[in-house]
Amino acid sequence: MPRLIQAMNSTDEQHICELQKLYLSDDAKGHGLSKQLMTIALDYAAQRYDQCYLETMAKLKPACALYEKFGFTPLKQPLNGSEHSAMDRWYLKVLK
Questions:
Q1: What is the arithmetic mean of pLDDT over 69-88?
Q2: pTM of the prediction?
Q3: Mind listing the pLDDT tens digit for each residue in 51-75?
Q4: Other Cβ atoms within 10 Å of 45 Cβ, number
Q5: Which of 23, 52, 56, 86 is the most exposed place for a label (fewest CB within 10 A)?
Q6: Does pLDDT of 20 surpass 90?
Q7: Who contacts 4 (Cβ-Cβ below 8 Å, separation ≥6)?
Q8: CB 95, CB 53: distance < 8 Å
Q9: DSSP state of 9
Q10: CA–CA dist 48, 16 (Å, integer)
Q11: DSSP string of 23-52, one letter each residue
């Protein structure tokens, strides 16, 4: 099973995880699967971490809207320790 939640390269005091690679094929879109996957991933993360971080691209407007609907706050820059230089949107959600 692919891993959606991964611990970030950060200090233990921060307790931040990163949501990675939430993709659906075109034929799977429009059935509520993104919302279900987000709910499962965030429930899992909330049991283990204080915050959840993710990176995406501005051109992925439906993804950005989904993240904001789930309470992710846009950031002005990536968190320290980020390794995804191709992304241009960064989000953080407080889980606890």
A1: 89
A2: 0.82
A3: 999 999 999 999 999 999 999 999 9
A4: 22
A5: 86
A6: no
A7: 19, 20, 21, 22, 37, 41
A8: no
A9: S
A10: 9
A11: ---GGGTTSSHHHHHHHHHHHHHHTT-SEE
DSSP state of 7: E
Q: Encoding tokens for residue 80?
A: 């320290």
> What is d(CA 71, CA 91) in angstroms, rounded to the nearest whole number?
9
Residues sharing a CB contact under 8 Å with residue 31, sequence separation 6 or more, in sequence order: none
Of the candidates 25, 1, 18, 27, which has an alpha carbon nearest to the alpha carbon of residue 67? 18
> How large a percentage of the chain has pLDDT more than 70?
84
